[in-house]
Amino acid sequence: MSSFRDTCLTIQFMKKLLTLAFLLASAFGLAQNLTETDKLYTTAKLWGFLKYYHPEVAGGKFDWDAQLFDIIEKTKTISNSGDLSAVYDKWLDGLGPVKPCKACARPSSKKYLDKNFDLSWTQDPTLFSESVSRKLKSIEQNRFLGKSHYFGVHDPVGNVEFKNEKTYGSGVWNDRNLRLLSLIRYWNQFEYFSPNKYLTDQNWNDVLREMIPKFDNAKSEQELHLAMLELVTRTDDSHAGITTAQANAYFGHYWIAADFRIIDEKAVITSFHDVEKAQKDDLRIGDVIEKVNGKSISEIMKERDRYLPASNPAVKKRRRYAFLNGPDDSATIVFSRNGQSAEKTVKRYLSDDLKDPVKTDPKWKILNNNIGYVDMGRLEIKEIDAMWDMLKATSAIIFDIRNYPKGTVYAIGAKLFGREDFVTFTQPDPDYPGKFYWNKILSIGKNGNDKFKGKVILLVNEMTQSHGEFTVMGLQCAPNAITIGSQTAGADGNVSDAIFPDGTSTYITGLGVYYPDGTQTQRTGVKIDIEVQPTVSGIAEGRDEILEKAIKTASEKPIKN
Predict the structure, then answer these.
(1) How many Å apart are CA 297 and CA 322, to the nearest integer?
(2) Which residues pair with 349 in a beta bridge?
(3) Which residue has the higher pLDDT, 9 or 435?
(4) Would you say 434 and 116 are in contact if contact means Cβ atoms under 8 Å apart?
(5) I need a surface site. Which of 340, 367, 437, 449 has the fewest CB within 10 A?
(6) DSSP string spanning 173-215?
(7) Domain ranges of the chain
(8) Would strands 481-485 and 455-460 be described as parallel, antiparallel, or unpaired?
(9) Running DSSP on this structure, what letter comes out for residue 121?
(10) From CA 283, how far away is CA 265, in angstroms rounded?
């Protein structure tokens, strides 16, 4: 008995000790001096939480932008967390009582992806007083249900649509409150409605803390727009980006007359935007541009990397405007051709002055050895029957998806194979912002018809993005499918538009997209069977090495049925 009593006393003592330690930690945390960034960081997170969770706020009762400006003003002279919590406490009380929500307590039948969701910061004793944390927990447990004033869900797709966000015109850059709103609004939209937040290279909380001074101290419209561009770049999402005159001016409005691909940190000319203008500067396919106005391509890449939204390095290199563009109508380049290096000045043009060649070759055709070929970026739904009539007897069909298809995947799948599962999604739970749940698995194909018995070869590269990747995933269900090429853009799923306070539009990927086995596609791209990267020599010789590999693969080992 004595031993049992001693054990109980020890447990009670440890509980008291832990409680005391918690109270001391809280007191120490709340007594710490705060920087302006500290205060704005906590305010930004609290403002976003209340916007989507508090029943009165989410219902649209308040001018929520004005509430942010008011709290920023009230916390200007505050120097410690205790006083900051006192302001928050009064703010919460002013929003009105939070009524009990019985529906919020009911167990959900949804299967959640738990990697994105974390509201533990609302209970952090170094950020908030016990009173504030208790009220925040009550708001979470009795959160707003129904149609939010600030977002809706696209039916039947499931990604969110942001609503009722105010815009304030081009003078935003000259108003501190509006500059901070630009950051805080978008940061919270991504925080609660990106299915892929857990995949960012940098912790999203750290992004907020790091970006606060850049928005707070922007001294011009261009500085603000570059801060906005850097912010969306931190999402590591190829769907993101902004296009404004100020942002474009940073890269320059003038282009050379040639297109190119970055290989080994050099720009290799692959085609021409305007053949006549390119010839005037003696630009040739396969020319390797090593420097522009004294800077190497690798230096330019490092300098501009933070302004190039991309899910992976392949898309970073795809952002061609970042490397050879400039503010002037000419540039001095160092280039090599046939192993010889030289320097010369070339003209640069406004994009409207360049005449891109129009494709005139057939959208589908039969190559040697009875191999079919389809340009999926040009094939229309209404043309599928004609395409199929020509190619259904071929030994293989090469579907070139190094482009953006036109919604043809389901109709083509119905020609090629029987019903197969090919994709599943995570989508936002509008009744629990920040949580994402698994949706049903989608199928493609059509049972009952004679199916294609030849090989199905899919060509991909960094230009294969979003619906292109979705198309690849669908056609990969063909029993004899082979995917050839290089890493795709890693940005699938319907996009949600987001509007900055000055009216600038951007996007976030709104759905998580996975193979039926749970393999993610965001950032990584689609599964590839045979990897092929273009080479400098191949480009110089005018060869399409990915297509060549596809033709060779199509000709190998006839399939036994």
Answers:
(1) 10
(2) 255
(3) 435
(4) yes
(5) 340
(6) GG-HHHHHHHHHHHHHHHHHH-TTGGG-SS-HHHHHHHHHHHH
(7) 24-147, 248-353, 364-555
(8) parallel
(9) G
(10) 19
Task: Name the region of 266 (left: φ>0; alpha: ψ -120 to 50; beta: rest).
Answer: beta
**Assigned token pair, 307:** 């302004």
* Nearest of 526, 525, 543 to residue 534 by alpha carbon: 543
Total-model pTM: 0.91
Give the Cα separation of 308 and 450 in Å (integer).
Answer: 47
Nearest to 161 by CA among 428, 426, 492, 407: 428
| pLDDT (0 to 100) of residue 288 | 97
| CA distances (Å), origin 88, targets 13, 33, 40, 47 | 34, 17, 12, 10
Residue 422 burial (C-beta neighbours within 10 Å; 0-12, 13-18, 19+): buried
**How far is residue 424's CA from residue 72's CA, in Å, rounded to a whole number?**
42
Cα separation of 494 and 160, whole Å? 9
CB 172 within 8 A of CB 65: no
- What's the token pair of residue 371? 């191999």
CATH of 364-555, one of 3.30.40.10, 3.40.50.300, 3.10.450.50, 3.90.226.10: 3.90.226.10
Q: pLDDT tens, 163-211?
A: 999 999 989 999 999 999 999 999 999 999 999 999 999 999 999 999 9
DSSP sequence for 396-419: EEEEE-SS---S-HHHHHHHH-S-
Of 513, 522, 498, 512, residue with least CA distance to 232 = 498
- Per-residue tokens: 358: 């129009």
Contact at 8 Å (CB) between 260 and 267? yes
248-353 CATH choice from 3.40.30.10, 3.40.640.10, 3.60.21.10, 2.30.42.10: 2.30.42.10
User: 30-34, 277-281, 329-333: which range is least confident on average?
Assistant: 30-34
Q: How many Cβ atoms are within 10 Å of 130's Cβ, its own excluded? A: 14
| Kind and range of the H or E run holding 384 | helix 384-391
Q: Residue 6 has which token pair? A: 């001693």
Helix (H) or strand (E) holding 51: helix 36-53
Note the pLDDT tens digit of each residue in 139-174: 999 999 999 999 999 988 999 999 999 999 989 999
d(CA 218, CA 215): 5
How far, in Å, CA of 449 to CA of 252, rounded?
54
Report the pLDDT value the prediction gives residue 7, as an integer from 0 to 100: 46
Helices (H) and strands (E) in the chain, counts: 19, 23
Residue type, 461: N
Alpha-carbon distance of 169 to 439, in angstroms, equals 39
Q: Return the DSSP state at 541.
A: T
CB 514 within 8 A of CB 423: yes
Residue 384 has a CB neighbour count (10 Å cut-off) of 17
Specify the length of the chain in residues: 561
Q: What is the DSSP string of 488-525?
A: -----S-EEEEE-TTS-EEEEE-SEEE-TT--B-TTT-
- Name residue, tokens 């990915």: 546
Residue 466, by phi and psi: left (phi above 0), alpha (psi -120 to 50) or beta? left
